[in-house]
Design goal:
The complex is a heterodimer of chains A (305) and B (323). In chain A, a hairpin with a 6-residue loop joins β1 and β2. The relative contact order of chain A is 0.14. Chain A has 305 residues and is mainly α. Chain A has a two-stranded antiparallel sheet with strand order 1-2. Chain B has a single domain, classed as MetI-like fold, CATH 1.10.3720. Classes of the chains: A mainly alpha (305), B mainly alpha (323). Chains A and B meet through α5, α6, α10 and α13 of A and α1, α6, α7, α8 and α10 of B.
Chain lengths: 305, 323
């Protein structure tokens, strides 16, 4: 994990392979849960990036000679094995789960990064300008926060329609006020610091002070929100897709794989509902563990616990 | 105190009004209206005159500010209009489903409290032991597991379990019968969704209980209690627990508020005809009146729960006095 890798490059090179290994062992001892989460996240990312090489089948290709066959069956057409069985269209679940990681991580990372960055800007601007601007922004945030996440996302999906790109918008928008609220409270304290006055007195513009002087000092809450959003976005995307209002067929997405067929075939082909759900759970579990470790590392108040 | 309550109550209105404006604007951005969907859906031929008549009847051809004034006036006088899709009064549509959703929300909250309090306290008391790690793993897994998947697993488990035990598959009943008419039938239907959502929400509450307990257990007065030789059980139950409950109550209160609107997915899995399902169909059918009323209901419950939680604070903790 590049973000955890705080050592300068030169010392690491000097220590060589052994050094990285030791460093990882130390990390695993100090933060066992976070380390496990980091490994899961890393595996998920690798799975998404190298999906083309890892998946034994085309995730969108139907094979009507092997519909709903169990895990471990062999395809009559290509002779390859369906490690996790097939769905009602004879599509390989294993390949669809691997490609599903791509969908989930694209949505997860885009929403988390976009949502928290916009939230950061809004929160810092709100704290920095204060006064009427702050008051209005905060009241608008109040309104947005009064909507449960899923309700807000559903309402936005209704406007923009379904599909991966629309889902990203629907999940990002409700994230922005949540991050802005947290960032603002940290930025309020920074605004009173003498160095901000100093920056202003030598004539720096608002934009420069916000971006260069305040924003870097509220990175801790920003990163905490960002990592917390990752798991939440994956879960929300799965929920929307499950309702049929998210990612659309034939794109492989975990939530979508649970839709429709899942309950119908629950008894005769339990692998259809079990494995995609397991993929969601493991992914979100990994991201949450990782996020918790980031929070523990960045939030000194929680560190002792 | 009373002036605070009144002031705080009045503060609720701007938020509600803002939410009303927001949902009004959002819905008007949706391409196509209910009439076009009703008559022209699925690519069938629709008589333009018929659509126009329908739009006229529902007031969709009025200028947007007239529609808005109508809508706000409606809320102010508690006249929520009729559903644009079914032509039934909105209040009726909501009322027949409210009991079901409310009951699941209450039961799920109870489930989450029953799971969260003992586990959270235990994890705090045995901090950094394997018990603590197991509880934390259990609760992080609860947050990670989508409640609809847990729902599918429960149904799957019921089917396979009943097949194995009784020789024939058993499924929870589909039709909703009020708890007061037939408690057994009612519970055998609703306990499963309550478990599925309750476990998920217990995860957040468990973590909150644990960290609140840890905070309190490090306080001076707990050290004093220990030094005078009190049993750890007494310290935890009598001295620490009461003070650790404040943040836990906040979390549970807010969770309950979210549950009222957040059951969308769970109701889908268990095929329950509740508010969440109504919301999804209202949104997909561009039923403005129904969607607006539902959103406002959820938002109002949420805002009001927050208000109640604030008051509970003052009531439970004599150190907090609002003025």
């Amino acid at each position: 994990m590049a973000s955890l890798d705080t050592q300068p490059r030169s010392t690491r090179d000097a220590m060589g392979r052994r050094g990285i290994f030791d460093w990882m062992i130390r990390l695993a001892r100090r933060q066992p849960l976070g380390f496990a989460g980091g490994i899961i996240v890393l595996l998920m990312v690798l799975m998404a990036v190298f999906a083309d090489f890892l998946a034994p089948f085309d995730p969108e290709a139907a094979d009507f000679t092997s519909m709903l066959v169990g895990p471990g069956s062999v395809s009559e057409m290509s002779g390859a094995t369906f490690w996790l069985g097939t769905d009602q269209f004879g599509r390989d679940l294993f390949s669809r789960i691997i490609y599903g990681a791509r969908t989930a991580l694209t949505v997860g990372f885009t929403c988390a990064i976009l949502g928290s960055t916009l939230g950061l800007l809004l929160g810092v601007a709100s704290a920095y300008f204060g006064g009427l601007f702050d008051l209005i922004v905060q009241r608008i945030i109040d309104v947005f926060m009064a909507f449960p996440l899923i309700i807000m996302a559903l309402a936005i999906v209704a406007i923009f329609g379904t599909g991966t790109d629309k889902v990203i918008i629907a999940i990002t928008i409700p994230f922005v006020p949540r991050c802005a609220r947290i960032v603002r409270s940290s930025a309020l304290a920074i605004r009173e610091m003498p160095y901000i006055d100093a920056a202003r007195s030598i004539g720096y513009g608002h934009m420069r002070i916000i971006v260069r002087h305040i924003a870097p000092n509220v990175v801790a809450p920003f990163l905490i929100m960002l990592t917390a959003f990752l798991g939440e976005a994956i879960l929300l995307e799965a929920s929307l897709s499950y309702l049929g209002l998210g990612v659309q067929e034939p794109t492989p997405a975990w939530g979508l794989m649970l839709q429709g067929g899942a309950e119908e075939y629950a008894e005769s082909a339990p692998w259809v509902p079990v494995f995609p759900g397991l993929a969601i759970t493991i992914a979100v579990f990994g991201f949450n563990l990782f996020g918790d470790a980031v929070r523990d590392a960045l939030d000194p108040k929680l560190r002792s616990q | 105190m009373y002036t605070y309550i009144i002031k705080r109550l009045f503060m609720l209105f701007p938020t509600l009004f803002g939410a009303a404006i927001l949902i009004f604007i959002l819905l008007r951005l949706v391409p196509g209206d209910v009439c076009q969907l009703k008559f022209g859906g699925e690519g069938s031929y629709a008589d333009p005159q018929q659509i126009l008549d329908c739009q006229n009847r529902l007031g969709l051809t009025d200028p947007i500010y007239i529609q808005f004034l109508d809508y706000v006036a409606g809320f102010a006088t508690f006249d929520f209009g009729v559903s644009m899709w079914t032509s039934q009064p909105v209040v009726h549509e909501i009322a027949i489903r409210f009991e079901l959703s409310l009951q699941i929300a209450v039961m799920a909250t109870l489930v989450s409290i029953i799971i969260a309090l003992p586990l959270g306290i235990l994890a705090a008391a045995k901090q950094n032991t394997w018990i603590d790690y197991t509880v934390r793993g259990f609760s992080i897994a609860g947050i990670a597991m989508p409640s609809f998947w847990l729902g599918i697993l429960i149904i799957l488990g019921l089917l396979i379990g009943s097949q194995a035990w009784f020789g024939r598959p058993w499924m929870p009943p589909i039709t909703f019968i009020s708890f007061f008419q037939d408690p057994l039938h009612n519970l055998s239907q609703l306990i499963w969704p309550a478990l599925a959502t309750g476990y998920r929400y217990s995860a957040v509450a468990t973590r909150m209980t644990r960290s609140a307990m840890l905070d309190v257990l490090h306080e001076d007065y707990v050290r004093t209690a220990r030094s005078k030789g009190l049993l750890e059980k007494v310290i935890i139950n009598k001295h620490a627990l009461k003070n650790a409950m404040l943040p836990v109550i906040t979390i549970i209160g807010i969770e309950f508020a979210f549950l009222m609107g957040g059951l969308v997915v769970t109701e889908q899995v268990f095929n329950l005809n509740g508010l969440g399902k109504l919301f999804v169909s209202a949104v997909t059918q561009s039923d403005y009146t129904l969607t607006q009323a539902l959103v406002m209901l959820v938002v109002a419950i949420f805002v009001f729960m927050n208000f109640l939680v604030d008051l509970m604070y003052a009531w439970l903790d004599p150190r907090i006095r609002y003025s």
